[in-house]
Amino acid sequence: MGFFQVDQIPLDSVSDNMTADAPKRQLLRTIVESNRPDLGQYAGFYRDVHQNPDISAMEANTAKKAASHLERLGYTVHPHIGGHGVVGMFSNGPGKIVLMRAELDALPILEETSVPYRSERRMVDRYGNERPVMHACGHDMNMAALLAAADLLKAAAHHWNGTLLVVFQPDEEETGGAQAMLDDGLYDRVPVPDLMLGQHVGPLRAGTVAIRSGPILVAADSLRIRVTGGPCEGSANPQICVDPIPLSMRIVSGLQEAVTHEVGPHEDATVACWGFHAGEPGDDYVTHADILLDIKTIKPDIRRRVLDVVMKKFLDECRAAGVPRDPEFKHTVRAPLTSNDDAIAGTVRYAFHDYFAGNVAEMTLNRACEDFSTLGAAPYNVPYAYWKFGSTPEDAVKPVPVNHSPFFAPEVNLTLKTGADAMALAALAFLVV
Ligand SMILES: [Zn+2]
Question: What tens digit of pLDDT does each residue of 58-78 get?
Answer without folding.
Answer: 999 999 999 999 999 999 999
